């Protein structure tokens, strides 16, 4: 069970990274970063997505995945957090 639990931690970290990259990319283009982050991850994971805002030259998104716990003697909640930053799209007219 410990090996499966470690696998869940790794999988959760991977999914958090994918969600953060998708959220930051779509938000930097003016889209719904939160929705993109959720769509990029497995639906059964419990995650919080902060897609940030589109101010300045970059957009940063943070995804926190609450790792499912299988081993009964472990804490009841582990969190894995990943952050991604993407450059904001520039207006082709130079604005």
Which key terms come to mind for this protein?
95 residues; three-stranded antiparallel β-sheet; 2 helices
H/E order of the elements?
HHEEE
What kind of sheet is the major sheet? 3 strands, antiparallel
Mind telling me the C-alpha Rg?
16 Å
- Rounded mean pLDDT is 89
Strands of the biggest beta sheet: in what spatial order?
1-2-3
Discrete helix count: 2
Number of strands: 3
Strand content: 25-35%
Strand-pairing-aware structural class: alpha+beta
Low-confidence stretches: none
Q: What's the shape?
A: elongated
Helix content: 25-40%
Give the termini distance in whole angstroms.
55 Å
Short synopsis of the structure:
The chain has 95 residues and is α+β, with helices and mostly antiparallel strands. The chain contains two helices and three strands.
Structural write-up:
This protein has 95 residues and is of the alpha+beta class. It is built from 2 helices and 3 strands, in the order ααβββ. Strands 1-2-3 form a 3-stranded antiparallel sheet, covered by helices on one side. β1 and β2 form a beta hairpin. The N and C termini lie far apart (55 Å).
Strands, helices and their partners?
Layout: H1 2-28, H2 33-39, E1 46-50, E2 58-67, E3 78-87
Antiparallel strand pairs: 1-2, 2-3
Helix pairs in contact: 1-2
């Amino acid at each position: 069970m410990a090996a499966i639990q470690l696998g869940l931690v790794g999988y959760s970290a991977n999914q958090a990274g994918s969600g953060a990259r998708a959220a930051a990319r779509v938000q930097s283009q003016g889209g719904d970063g939160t929705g993109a982050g959720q769509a990029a991850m497995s639906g059964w994971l419990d995650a919080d997505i902060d897609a940030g805002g589109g101010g300045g030259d970059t957009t940063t998104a943070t995804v926190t995945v609450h790792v499912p716990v299988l081993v009964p003697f472990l804490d009841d909640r582990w969190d894995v957090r990943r952050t991604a930053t993407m450059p904001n799209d520039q207006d082709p007219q130079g604005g």
